[in-house]
Amino acid sequence: MNITIYDVAREANVSMATVSRVVNGNPNVKPATRKKVLNTIERLGYRPNAVARGLASKKTTTVGAIIPDISSIFFAELARGIEDIATMYNYNIILSNSDQNKEKELHLINTMLEKQVDGIVFMGGKITDEHVQQFQTSPVPVALAATIDESQKTPSVNIDYEQAAYEATALLLEHGNEHPAFVSAQEETEINNQKFNGYQRALKEKNVSFKEDLVIKGDYTYDSGIEALDQLMSRDQKPTSIFVASDEMALGVIHGAQDRGLKVPEDLEVFGFDNTRLATMVRPTLSTIVQPMYDIGAVAMRLLTKYMNKEEVTEQNIILPHRIIERNSTKSQ
Q1: Termini Cα distance of the chain
Q2: Sheet holding 287-290, edge to edge
Q3: Which terminus, N or C, of the chain has the lesser number of Cβ atoms within 10 Å?
Q4: What is the reported pLDDT for 100?
Q5: Buried (b) or exposed (e) across 9-29, using 16+ Cβ within 10 A?
């Protein structure tokens, strides 16, 4: 049997308005009455209907978080940052996986809105005009995390991906590697484009010619890292260093090299991107770009709360700092 606020009011012999005040923490209730209502709520097992309360207050204290893959260490760290800040501000999270599929992403946005969420944190791949249209017409605020809207119309939190990729490639060049290879990603997202631009900028500054056959596109998975290594080792000019667009792919590159009898970093230097926990689990440990995934999620959620609560927002598109951490997969200078 579904216990209603009417049942609690009848059993406690008070008005429904009094029960509502107790449930919502309104101080204008006598202590004795509050205790009686709370005892009745516990005895009957009453659970307030969040949807009904949301209809009355026009707020559900619920936020939708749409991410590509919760099983990914990268996105799990982001989700944790979102969750912690949401809890701090008394919001609940509805979490959905989009599989980085455009149609599913657009469907999930509508589903979240149908569930009357107060805001949405969105993490995805390529932000299309259709995405932007949905964000702009949404009745609630939307904030992007580790995702770029090229039109700059949607609030977002990221790092400077181009500069980070530039610094990683420049480091490999400084170690005496003539033509660092690049394991990129297949999808034409703004983030992937920025990483590629950073790689090219570092080559150009050192007067190193760009070689298209030293750029391999993977899909951010471990297996695609192994496949990328195999392709690169089949080239006439085999690279002595590889910059990889994600830690997970970098692990595949390292293990693929080791399977071939190559030593890392003596025969092949490998540099990753993200600084997930995987970077310290592999041997040799992985040099990588430190992208603060937890902080990106946390700051995106805090940015969203500002919009939801109509607080002042001084910066809509936030760029967080990154840094290089050198471990054992690259040579020390």
Answers
A1: 71
A2: 215-218, 181-185, 241-244, 269-274, 287-290, 323-325
A3: N
A4: 85
A5: bebbebeeebbbbbbeeeeeb
pLDDT at 278 over 70: yes
DSSP states of 68-129: S-TTSHHHHHHHHHHHHHHHHTT-EEEEEE-TT-HHHHHHHHHHHHHTT-SEEEE--S---H
Quick check: 273 and 289 in contact, CB under 8 A? yes
Give the whole-number percent of the chain exceeding pLDDT 70: 96
| Mode of pairing for the β-strands spanning 323-325 and 287-290 | antiparallel
* Ramachandran bin of 193, using left for φ above 0, alpha for ψ from -120 to 50, beta for the remaining angles: alpha
C-alpha distances in angstroms, 292 versus 66, 142, 170?
Answer: 19, 21, 21
| For range 144-168, the mean pLDDT | 96
Q: What is the mean pLDDT of residues 85-103?
A: 92
Predicted pLDDT of residue 239? 96
Q: Tell me, what amino acid is at 124?
A: G
Output the six-digit token pair for 215.
Answer: 């750029």
Range from 44-48, 149-153, 329-333 carrying the lowest mean pLDDT: 44-48
Give per-residue burial for 264-300: e unless 16+ CB within 10 Å, then b: bbeebbbbbbbbbebbeebebbbbbbbbbbebbbbbb
**Cα 243 from chain centre:** 22
